[in-house]
Design brief:
InterPro entries: Peptidase_S54_rhomboid_dom, Rhomboid-like_sf, Rhomboid_protease_S54. It is a multi-pass membrane protein. Belongs to the peptidase S54 family. This is Rhomboid family intramembrane serine protease. This protein has a two-stranded antiparallel ribbon with strand order 1-2. About 70% of the residues lie in helices and about 5% in strands. The protein has helices at about 1-5, 10-25, 30-35, 40-45, 50-55, 60-85, 90-115, 125-140, 155-170, 180-195, 200-205, and strands at about 145, 150-155. It has 11 helices and 2 strands. The radius of gyration is 17 Å and the shape is globular. By secondary structure, the protein is mostly helical.
């Protein structure tokens, strides 16, 4: 972990801060309503825009936290390292930008759809983490991932299955996990990666042909 703190400082800060704040709200649940994304409030009180960021630092329960942080650990640190390889020290800034901008973009559809729904709340870092995952896939589409942490599957196939699940889950969900953010976070990650590294498209194609 000390190596990661030195080589990938942005991913390390995100990782530690997300775990720390999530654990805090687990023990102090009164903070959930203060930090969760509430589109109804944000639409009517622009000073509450901070909820977009704070909601991405807290999680519903242990399973939600563990799944997101395992995904971020496996792909976030690797992606920041690749950005540094491509862009030198500026890679750290670009990685931070991709994570934060994706976090915002992944929540915009929810803010629009739920702006008149006072009972809707959401939380979790899933949107930004999906952006990280799909950005990683742009560079290493044939990397082997573990479906359910067990079944080996290439990253590009995982991407299609994941997007299909997100579309289905967004129509069925009745919890506070923002499933729409998974889909739009993934799309944001792909779009921002192409914007930062246009050659990633030809690189992706070359991996198959």
């Amino acid at each position: 972990m000390l190596y990661y703190l030195y080589a990938t400082p942005v991913a390390s800060v995100i990782f530690v801060l997300t775990i720390g704040l999530s654990l805090y709200v687990f023990s102090n649940p009164q903070w959930y309503t203060k930090l969760m994304l509430h589109p109804y409030t944000v639409h009517r009180d622009k000073s509450k825009w901070y909820m977009i960021f704070t909601s991405g630092l807290i999680h519903k329960d242990w399973m939600h936290l563990i799944f997101n942080m395992m995904t971020f650990y496996y792909f976030g640190f690797g992606l920041e390292s690749m950005f540094v390889q491509f862009s030198g020290a500026m890679g750290h800034v670009l990685f931070a930008g991709l994570y934060l901008v994706s976090l915002i973009l992944s929540d915009i559809p929810t803010l629009i759809r739920q702006k008149n729904n006072p009972s809707y709340y959401s939380l979790g870092a899933s949107g930004a983490i999906c952006a990280v995952l799909f950005s990683f896939i742009m560079f290493q589409p044939k990397a082997m991932l573990g479906l359910f942490m067990v079944i080996p599957i290439p990253a590009y196939l995982f991407a299609f299955l994941f997007l299909g699940y997100c579309i289905w889950a967004s129509k069925k969900a009745y919890d506070n996990v923002n499933h729409d953010a998974h889909l739009f976070g993934a799309l944001a990650g792909i779009g921002l990666t192409i914007l930062l590294y246009p050659w990633s498209i030809s690189h992706l194609i070359s991996q198959f042909f």
